[in-house]
Structures are given as structure tokens and as C-alpha cells.
Design a protein that fits this description.
By secondary structure, this protein is α+β, with helices and mostly antiparallel strands. It has helices at 2-28, 95-124, 142-146, 165-174, 231-235, 254-263, 310-336, 342-345, 349-383, 391-405, 413-442, 451-459; strands at 33-49, 52-67, 126-127, 134-137, 153-157, 160-161, 180-186, 189-195, 198-202, 205-209, 212-214, 223-226, 242-246, 249-250, 269-274, 277-282, 295-297, 305-306. The protein folds into 4 domains: 30-90, no CATH class; 93-126 and 310-341 and 369-460, no CATH class; 134-214, Roll (Pdz3 Domain); 223-297, Pdz3 Domain.
Length: 460
């Protein structure tokens, strides 16, 4: 239920904000808005105020705004349209006004993506992020092979200066089959190295593991939830236990504890504090999917925050979104070069729902709003692509019409309809692809023989 609510809130908010951009600019320009719909298909509920019907429709994967005189999405409406005064018709407005209405939706999404980190920085401050020092290097792992040492400070990763841990982890997965250059600062000198990530499986997906731990400082590792009948439950771990050590190694922070559990199969000796007492527990050798024990940790206490002004908050917001775009660009570049399967670079409703659930359960409202900003930014950029039916397609057609007008030419209604049909078919094919892709990723059992998982289990 939590995952469903998070998915509905995130996707619904991104879509409503997008359509609100079209809506508010059209209203300001005096263009009639006949319908403001959240979802497609049959009208389930709504209310009409003035000349606009605000409705909730059957299929919740999107939404639309129907403008007076605009037939581009007339097929989404039921019944005939009433006569609209010429002064309120979208199709009779000058091209610059049509452009403003078309671009308003993506702009609203981009503004939302900027507003979320900006408001967060202004309201609570900016986390005092730890310096990118390395605290632990796995013996024989990718980092060890690359020559990385504990105490090194990473100053550049994949040619990006002052990289964040999120940047490095995403790049390691996107470029998991390649050597990635990076630079560390060691004893006052800069050393250039290259690392080839270790390819591992996590929740059915291949990821690139750098095999080292960042120095995140010391934070309490408290158990938030224990899954029934899981290895953790069978060992006697309970909600509220504070993990002191695992296999005799001190639990310094949540990231270190998660990393150790995921990389060490078999029994684990877990020392916990409970009610003022120290207990030594041993987990069974079995694991659940993803080599997990069935335990989640409570969010760590708030890290020290630095108060910032509007200028610094805006810089933080811009940098956060630029980093998302850069990572997206790297992933797309890997797809076009054939180094990353297209199925791993795109996701549909199921992938969004899964990410929303993880964001909500692992990071609470912070994760939900971060996911909303990420989705909103990608939705805005995607809608600017010059594909018919999308906002970018409409904007592109305006430029084409303007160019033809210079020569006294005009695009015929027949050609307009053909272009719209092509765009609609393309979107249907794209939607079908991402849904099938989601199913193959999140329900692999439906597409595999029964013998294959057994063979995989024997290899572990």
C-alpha cells in the first residue's frame, strides 16, 4: 500500500504540475480551457467551473489539457464540442502564443525539479557532506586491483571534479564493463588510477560495484523492521536493536553494515544492544532474494546542516539537476554506443512504482520528493523531444509552419493528421515496449525456465 500511494503521489504530482503549466498560461492568454484531466479515458469524476471541466479519468498514466479550437487530442474527448468564440480559440492565436502554451508544461516540470532542492536547502539547510575519503578497500576487489588505498581522497571520477558518491555509484553501474579513470589525492600528491567495476546482481539487475567504502563517519545502526520468517527474525533480531558489530567488526554506519551483509554469505555473528544489555546472535546461513537478511535500518540522525542563502540554495538546486542530466546523458550515450542495453536505460510504470516504493520506505518524505524532482525533470525533458503528440512535436511543427510561411506555403490539414497519427502510433509502441521491458525485469520468472534458477542457486 505504501508503494502504491508513493507511486500515485509522485506520478500524479508530476503530471498535474505539467498540465497545470499549459493550463495557467492558456488562462493568462485568454484561451479557453475546455478540459483539465488527470488520467485518460472515461471520465470518472469531475466538476465544471466556468468553461472548464476538471476531471479524474479512468487510466491514471498521464493527463491532458483540452484547449478550445485545438483538435490534437480531440479523440480523448467524449461527445461534441460547443461553439467557441474566435477570441478564445487556440488555433487562431499567433504562433508565439501557441509556443508559450506548448513549452509551459515542460518548463513547469523543470521549475518543480529546481524548486524541490531549493526549498529544501532554504528550509533546513544543506547537509555538510563528508569529504570523498575512502575508509575501507575490499581485498581482491575492483578498488584493490586498481590500487586504491584507505585514506585516499577521490578528487576526480570519470573526468568529473569533486564527484559525489551518488555520481560514482551510478557511473560504475552504467559503465560496469569498462575501465573508468579517476584521480586520488594521497600524501599531498595526485595519483591517476583506473578502475573496472565488479559486476554483481542486485534485485535481479546487474550493477557495477567499486568494492570500497566511503568514510561516512560514525552513526548509530538501529534496526527499523525485521521481515517475518527471515534469517534476521530466526536469529532473534528485533526492531529497536542497535547493531554494535558484525563478525567482530564494529558497525560504524548503516552503509558499512549493509555493504558487509550483502557481501558475506553464510552465518553472521551480530552483536546488538537491547534494553541496556549486549546480546550475541547468530544468523542462519540462508538468505532471501538479493543476498539479504530481511532487515531494514532506521534512518540515521540528521547530519550537520549548513545554513545557506538564496544564491547558494539556487546553486545547489541547479547542480543537483545538472548532475541528473549528466548521468542520464551518460546512460543514453552508452545505449547508442551499444555498451548498455536499451532495456536497462528506460523504465515504465512498474519501474517508477518500484523506485517510488524504495524511495518512500528507505528515505521517507525526503526520498519521495527527491524521486518527484527526478521524475519531473525527466518528464519535462522528454516532452521537449520533437515527437508528434508531445509538446516538443507541437513546438517543432510551429517552427516548420513559420519556415514554410516565409515562402508563402502552408501545411495542409491532411499532413497534420498524418503526422499526429505517426506520433500517436510511436507513443503506443514506446509504451508497449517499456511495459514489456518492466515485466521482463520485475517478473523474470514468467520468462525463464524452471531449471535456470536452480542452476543459478547451485553456483552461489
Amino acid at each position: 500500500m505504501l508503494g502504491y500511494l508513493a507511486f500515485v503521489f509522485i506520478l500524479g504530482s508530476a503530471v498535474i504540475l505539467h498540465e497545470f503549466g499549459h493550463f495557467i498560461v492558456a488562462k493568462l492568454l485568454g484561451i479557453r480551457v475546455e478540459t483539465f484531466s488527470v488520467g485518460f479515458g472515461k471520465r470518472l469524476w469531475g466538476r465544471k467551473w466556468g468553461t472548464t471541466d476538471y476531471r479524474l479519468s479512468l487510466i491514471p498514466l498521464g493527463g491532458y489539457v483540452k484547449l478550445g479550437g485545438d483538435d490534437s487530442n480531440a479523440g480523448l474527448e467524449e461527445g461534441g464540442a460547443e461553439e467557441i468564440p474566435a477570441g478564445e480559440r487556440f488555433d487562431l492565436r499567433p504562433r508565439y502564443q501557441k509556443f508559450l502554451v506548448g513549452v509551459a508544461g515542460p518548463v513547469m516540470n523543470v521549475l518543480t525539479a529546481l524548486a524541490i532542492p531549493f526549498v529544501g536547502a532554504m528550509a533546513v539547510g544543506v547537509p555538510a557532506a563528508p569529504s570523498p575519503f575512502v575508509s575501507q578497500v575490499d581485498q581482491g576487489g575492483a578498488a584493490d586491483t586498481a590500487g586504491l588505498r584507505a585514506g585516499d581522497r577521490i578528487v576526480s571520477f570519470d573526468n568529473k571534479e569533486d564527484p559525489t558518491w551518488r555520481w560514482m555509484n551510478v557511473v560504475a553501474t552504467v559503465k560496469r564493463n569498462q575501465s573508468i579513470p579517476f584521480i586520488v589525492e594521497r600524501e599531498g600528491q595526485r595519483v591517476q588510477l583506473s578502475i573496472r567495476p565488479t559486476v554483481t546482481q542486485e534485485d535481479g539487475h546487474e550493477i557495477g560495484d567499486l568494492d570500497f567504502m566511503p568514510d561516512l563517519g560514525i552513526e548509530p545502526v538501529v534496526i527499523h523492521q525485521v521481515v517475518d520468517d527471515s534469517p534476521a527474525a530466526k536469529a532473534g533480531l528485533k526492531t529497536g536493536d542497535r547493531v554494535v558489530s558484525i563478525d567482530g567488526e564494529a558497525a560504524r554506519n548503516i552503509a558499512q553494515a549493509r555493504e558487509y551483509i550483502s557481501k558475506h554469505q553464510g552465518q553472521l555473528r551480530v552483536a546488538v544492544e537491547r534494553g541496556g544489555e549486549r546480546l550475541e546472535l547468530t544468523t542462519p546461513s540462508e538468505r532471501i532474494e538479493g543476498n539479504k537478511m530481511g532487515v531494514t535500518f532506521a534512518p540515521p540522525p540528521a547530519v550537520p546542516l549548513e545554513r545557506v542563502g538564496p544564491g547558494e540554495a539556487f546553486t545547489v538546486a541547479v547542480n543537483a539537476n545538472v548532475e541528473i542530466l549528466q548521468l542520464t546523458g551518460i546512460a543514453l550515450g552508452q545505449v547508442f554506443s551499444g555498451q548498455l542495453p536499451v532495456g536497462e536505460a528506460v523504465g515504465g510504470p512498474i519501474a517508477i512504482a518500484a523506485a517510488s516504493y524504495e524511495a518512500a520506505t528507505n528515505y521517507g518524505w525526503n526520498g519521495v520528493f527527491e524521486m518527484l524532482g527526478f521524475l519531473s525533470l525527466n518528464l519535462g525533458i522528454f516532452n521537449l523531444l520533437p515527437i508528434p503528440v508531445l509538446d516538443g512535436g507541437m513546438i517543432f511543427m510551429l517552427f516548420v509552419e513559420g519556415f514554410l510561411a516565409l515562402w508563402g506555403l502552408k501545411l495542409s490539414l491532411r499532413w497534420r493528421e498524418r503526422i499526429q497519427q505517426v506520433g500517436f502510433v510511436f507513443l503506443l509502441l514506446l509504451m508497449g515496449f517499456v511495459i514489456i521491458n518492466d515485466v521482463t525485469k520485475f517478473a523474470p520468472g514468467l520468462f525463464r525456465s524452471k531449471e535456470k534458477p536452480a542452476a543459478t542457486t547451485q553456483q552461489k
